[in-house]
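Archive transcription. Copying these from loose printouts into the bound notebook so they stop getting lost. Printout 1 of 2:
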Amino acid sequence: MSRHRHFHLDHAGHSVTLNIRDGRRTEYELLVDGKEVGYQRRRRHSTAAELLSGELPGEPPRVFDLEIEHPADSREEIVCVLEVDGARRPMAEGAAL
């Protein structure tokens, strides 16, 4: 049985969303303003941090990283942090779509 997780943050007038589907494989879907800009699929769940990168639209586009941390002591807890413009901002978890 797979589990869906949803993280979201509004930054500089743009919407950044991470959807996670965790089952036999873990899938990460990164959206900016509702458009997919990154996707990653792993065979097995890992306690290591995953990193996805994307760009916020604009002139010039701004590159950002999204760090997804799976603490070693809990498969349930996931922490997502948006790194952009030299700052780290945690993303709130909400209801999966």
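Printout 2 of 2:
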Amino acid sequence: MAQKPSLPKGTRDFLPEVTLRRTFIFDTIKTVFQKYGYAPIETPSMENLSVLTGKYGEEGDRLIFKILNSGDFLRKATELEDSRKLTPQIAEKALRYDLTVPFARFVVMNQHALTFPFKRYQIQSVFRADKPQKGRYREFVQCDADVVGSDSLLFEAEFLCIYDEALSKLGLDDFTIQINNRKILEGFAEVVNQSDKFTDICVAIDKLDKIGQEKVMAEMEARDIPAAAAQEIFRLITFEGTAEEKLDFLEKAFANSPAGTLGVQEMREIFETYAAFPRFAGTVDFNLKLARGLNYYTGAIYEVKANNVKIGSICGGGRYADLTGVFGRPGLSGVGISFGADRIYDVMEELDLFGEIPSTSTKVLVVNFGNEVRLQALAALNQLRSAGIGAEYYAEAAKMKKQFGYADKKGIPFTLIIGADEAASGQYQLKNMKEGSQQALNMEAIIQHLS
């Protein structure tokens, strides 16, 4: 009996129409990256497990896809009594969880060939052992841009611009770019004398939108954060006002917090720099509740949400002070952002923003009338392709209805009819499949029209 075809949960096939739409997203984002001076790189889908573990916090580490070693490792592993020794015995590699940690490894391994500050973009798949649901997949594409080797806050301001411009060019007209600073979060911990619980505080606050304040308070209590400290943290992070009003408020609140004071200074500079750049459709929100639980962030952090679609964040990123240090190259500060292309696709589909994107790369189908005019048809096909126009020749001589049906199903907008009369006169019939109209033109005019 034939095997029933299936896919692992959280993974997908992509039909041509979907792939073309995804390519449109990638190309749009890539164009903006290049406009700001970022160059492309690629890294392997798998990394050594030691490269990835310990970089994403306790929750992130649980979502890493480990790859079983080949050979007779499983038998040997079952002989071990200590289960803590099991993983190194059966898995030494893993699928990459994100593009940032592999980028840090890449920088250290290739530092001799790079010019710093090094600005790169990368559009590749990442893998999460997560529970699949709407907008959350086990394999998905991230579109990242990072700059490493500079402490300048110019890049933080430019990343606000990149988010704004790229998403606006994709057709989104109602989205919010949220920004905060991990030093401000450190300030909250310092103010309540809980600096040793900083990571616990960030992990709890990061869940605020998902589980609400009451459950976050309970989680802080479970992590041994006193109730009075938790209440004061919530008083600080729920302050409302403009970005300037929030900064003034925090400046007073952080009178005895060095980290918090530095965070306020950094945010003032970022907003002042950003004010010099043009605006597109997005709104920037200085969100004091934004925490992002990844351990390697040390400065500004970002999250982007589409306001008219319930799907969670579609982009994220932040500043990391010394991510390359764990790989033996300390002192290289960096900052980066990531576009969640799959979630962006879902948002665009829900908002019907793909209407003008062609469903095929073929612009014209040359109709097959058989051997009598085959050479003329192939010559026309070659002329179209030489002019950079996507063109196909119907492989078999078939009824016109069948060939037109093929063009309609594929979304090919034009057909080119070259029968005996057309071949003799040099005036070919170009048919607009959407309108049903057609006109007689020579090849020069046809190429000009389709171009």
